[in-house]
Prior knowledge:
The protein is mainly alpha-helical. The chain contains two helices and no strands. The chain has helices spanning about 5-50, 55-80.
Amino acid sequence: xxxxxxxxxxxxxxxxxxxxxxxxxxxxxxxxxxxxxxxxxxxxxxxxxxxxxxxxxxxxxxxxxxxxxxxxxxxxxxxxxxxxxx
Length: 86
């Protein structure tokens, strides 16, 4: 028991680091997704407002397109980062 305890401790430590890293990445992705949806909702609400100028409407539509393009880029980068084995 005394002989294998250090090895078990190292394995558990590595497992814990892996789980922590994956959990943090998951929650960060969820936070980004919530923020993106909130921003899109706010832009859509602003576009329905009759008080904003045509220039501001164009700027908000560009911002909405920018958000979508960034989302597509992020997904493409995520796919590129996947290591496919032969």
